[in-house]
Automatic annotation (TrEMBL):
CDD domains: MDR1. This is NAD(P)-dependent alcohol dehydrogenase. Residues 10-294 form the Enoyl reductase (ER) domain. One of its GO terms (molecular function) is oxidoreductase activity. InterPro entries: ADH-like_N, ER, GroES-like_sf, NAD(P)-bd_dom_sf, YIM1/Zinc_Alcohol_DH_Fams. It comes from the Bacteria. It comes from Croceimicrobium hydrocarbonivorans. Pfam families: ADH_N (PF08240), ADH_zinc_N_2 (PF13602). Gene3D superfamilies: Medium-chain alcohol dehydrogenases, catalytic domain (3.90.180.10), NAD(P)-binding Rossmann-like Domain (3.40.50.720).
């Protein structure tokens, strides 16, 4: 099979394809033929090797244990191990591989009790590959909060985490203000934002408005800045301080919301995996609205459900 591997830390040019033996399903494992993956911030961080702790775990000079990006992916079960009970060959599935990454490959093996579920019927592979990471992160940011009639500010609402946070807050009955580039405002209002701010045109920390919850989907906001427009008993949540609590049960709840039409997946662009370097450059440009998907299987033609 073919994989895309970061042969060293650096820019998108370090991502190159190579051959590797196809994994075999054993025990409780599923062997998944991957149809699509995505490009998100974790994939960029893995490739760059900017985090010293990540380098300590993954290789000081170049990636070793985690050299194949792809934190999330979707595909078809190719084969199952003899102890698998919940899946069968042919099932369409989506998965969050977590610290193992590995989605930039034609095949991947996961245990059936990992963060993997059957895809909702109303998603194609490209859309399903862009759900787990962002939606699970957004769910974790708000799952313990009661947001009915609460005033919420979401910074970075057009990104992989932010757009799901917006949809989940809207479903919970919150009054939502979002921060994003002006060219994203129209579709963010369709998702449920009552008010949109452009961070390039105004300093929203000087606004007279105060909020019950501020969500930092960028991972760049300082708590002292957020406090300036936060109610005294308000909450500040940021992806930069978030510890992963992904689970199969949570991903299944999100799949159920997709199936019920409560949340949607919005694709900014789709790249064949031969153009993975171009896809990473697009992600780093900041010029995107929604998700960037990678089409892995060479003989598959997508039919998007959402525009």
């Amino acid at each position: 099979m073919q994989i895309i591997k970061a042969h060293k830390y650096g820019g998108p040019e370090v991502l190159l394809r190579e051959e590797k033996a196809r994994p075999q399903a054993r025990g409780k494992q599923l062997c998944i033929q991957i149809m699509a993956s995505s490009v998100n911030q974790s994939d960029l961080h893995l490739r760059r090797g900017q985090n010293l702790l990540c380098r300590f775990k993954n290789g000081i000079i170049k990636p070793r244990r985690m050299a194949v990006p792809g934190l999330e992916f979707a595909g078809k079960v190719h084969s199952v191990g003899p102890q698998v009970t919940a899946f069968k060959a042919g099932d369409r599935v989506m998965a969050y591989s977590g610290a193992g990454f590995g989605g930039y490959a034609q095949f991947q093996c996961l245990n059936e009790n990992e963060v993997i579920v059957k895809m909702p019927e109303n998603l194609n592979y490209l859309e399903a590959a862009c759900l787990p990471y962002g939606a699970l992160a957004a769910w974790h940011l708000i799952e313990d909060l009661s947001l009915k009639d609460q005033k919420v500010l979401i910074c970075g609402a057009a990104g992989s985490v932010g757009n799901y946070a917006l949809q989940l807050c809207q479903n919970a009955g919150a009054e939502i203000t979002v921060v994003s580039r002006r060219n994203n405002h129209a579709w963010l209002k369709k998702l449920g934002a009552q008010k949109c701010l452009d961070y390039r045109e105004e300093n929203f920390w000087e606004s007279p408005q105060s909020y019950d919850l501020i969500i930092d989907a960028w991972g760049q906001i300082k708590a002292k800045d957020a406090q300036r427009v936060l109610h005294p008993e308000g909450q500040f949540r940021t992806v930069s301080k978030m510890k992963s609590r992904a689970s199969q049960a949570k991903l299944q709840k999100l799949a159920d919301l997709i199936a019920a039409g409560k949340i949607q997946v919005f694709l900014d662009s789709v790249f064949p995996w031969e153009e993975v370097q171009k896809a990473h450059r697009k992600a780093e440009s900041g010029e995107k609205a929604g998700h960037i998907a990678l089409k892995i299987s060479p003989n598959w033609n997508p039919k998007p459900h959402y525009n």
